[in-house]
């Protein structure tokens, strides 16, 4: 593809040459300053222009796109590109103003599962730690297709991506949390815990913990739906992340709980003793990997039985060289960092995979794929 637009390689070389510390600093000449500002402005305009072109495609009926030779794979590539553009909070918020948010949400109902999944990915990027875009998505009725896909889509990848988008949409968003509760979201979470897909389980467990931590009254809902039993089952999972997330959820559910039946207490003791036995048989290397699990098991034992677990007596709670555990290990639950402090997710992709060429739009000439990328928050969280 032809390389149009500003000479960014030249700009990089110029910047390095003037900031490597080998020569005294100097004021930019008026000519250099004007060239630099024009280059930056041209790049910004290209991104906005490209987002408008993508919006035009998203607004075009599927049958028209098909007649123009645009395939579902082309749409996925286009959504990949859009996701890179909306890494910037400003661009994410601008998507609505240029008319792109509503058609993007429409792709959540697309007949192709990969497009539904990719659209949810883009929504996740847009709303992550972004109250303005959270509000815009809620006002555009974006919550409804997301909860529908999460609850009942036949494709587990679509369900998982929708859950990730919901988690980002309702985090620190009271109207979103209320909508989730009213939409019977807890029942959908219970169904997710029954899935055999580990990634789906992780995302569900992390959202459960967040919701219970934010709304202690929801513990009653979780208990009525049988979450403790399911969490105890998942606490013996072969996946260490699932085990930790399940133990974390159990600790949150049982916090300040007084009316525990003898049967429930015995089941908890059996579970924790099983985990203690398993931890006791681990190698030193494996013990380092399950540090949080060790602390969670001890905290749960102390909470239920008012005494430290045998992990302390065995010297397995804190290994040599490790810092002492915090008083409340549940407070260590991961929450996504601010966008500005995280790496660009696009940099995590397999470097062996070359980026596909951007598809032509409705027969128009190829457009420069120059982009301005902003650092943003990473995860599913919980993934």
TrEMBL record:
The entry's keywords: Repeat
Database matches in InterPro entries: ARM-like, ARM-type_fold, Armadillo, Hsp70_NEF-Inhibitors, Nucleotide_exch_fac_Fes1, TOG
Gene3D superfamilies: Leucine-rich Repeat Variant
Signal peptide, first to last residue: none
Biased composition (Basic and acidic residues): 347-358
Region Disordered, annotated ranges: 318-383
PANTHER family, A to Z: HSP70-BINDING PROTEIN 1 (PTHR19316:SF18), PROTEIN FOLDING REGULATOR (PTHR19316)
Name under which the protein is recorded: Hsp70-binding protein 1
């Amino acid at each position: 593809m032809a390389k149009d637009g500003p000479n960014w390689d030249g700009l990089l070389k110029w910047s390095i040459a003037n900031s490597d510390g080998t020569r005294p600093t100097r004021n930019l000449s008026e000519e250099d300053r004007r060239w630099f500002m024009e280059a930056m402005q041209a790049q910004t305009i290209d991104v906005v222009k490209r987002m408008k072109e993508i919006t035009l495609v998203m607004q075009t009926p599927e049958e028209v796109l098909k007649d123009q030779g645009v395939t579902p794979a082309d749409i996925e590539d286009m959504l990949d590109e859009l996701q890179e553009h909306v890494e910037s909070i400003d661009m994410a918020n601008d998507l609505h103003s240029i008319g792109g948010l509503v058609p993007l949400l429409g792709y959540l109902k697309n007949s192709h599962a990969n497009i539904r999944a990719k659209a949810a990915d883009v929504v996740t990027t847009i709303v992550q730690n972004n109250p303005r875009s959270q509000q815009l998505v809620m006002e555009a009725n974006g919550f409804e297709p997301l909860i529908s896909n999460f609850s009942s889509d036949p494709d587990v990848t679509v369900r998982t991506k929708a859950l990730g988008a919901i988690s980002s949409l309702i985090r620190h968003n009271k109207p979103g949390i209320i909508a989730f509760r009213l939409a019977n979201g807890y029942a959908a979470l219970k169904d997710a815990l029954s899935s055999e897909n580990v990634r789906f389980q992780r995302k569900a467990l992390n959202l459960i913990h967040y919701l219970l931590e934010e709304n202690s009254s929801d513990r009653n809902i979780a208990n009525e739906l049988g979450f403790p039993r399911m969490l105890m089952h998942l606490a013996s999972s072969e996946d260490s992340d699932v085990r930790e997330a399940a133990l974390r959820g159990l600790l949150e559910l049982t916090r300040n709980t007084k009316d525990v039946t003898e049967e429930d207490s015995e089941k908890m003791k059996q579970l924790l003793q099983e985990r203690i036995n398993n931890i006791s048989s681990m190698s030193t290397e494996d013990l380092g990997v399950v540090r949080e699990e060790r602390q969670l098991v001890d905290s749960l034992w102390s909470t239920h039985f008012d005494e430290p677990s045998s992990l302390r007596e065995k010297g397995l709670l804190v290994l040599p060289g490790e810092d002492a555990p915090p008083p409340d290990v549940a407070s260590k639950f991961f929450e996504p960092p601010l966008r500005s402090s995280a790496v660009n997710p696009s940099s995590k992709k397999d470097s062996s995979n070359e980026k596909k060429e951007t598809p032509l739009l409705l027969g128009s000439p190829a457009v420069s794929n120059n982009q301005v990328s902003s650092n943003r928050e990473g995860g599913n969280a919980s993934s």
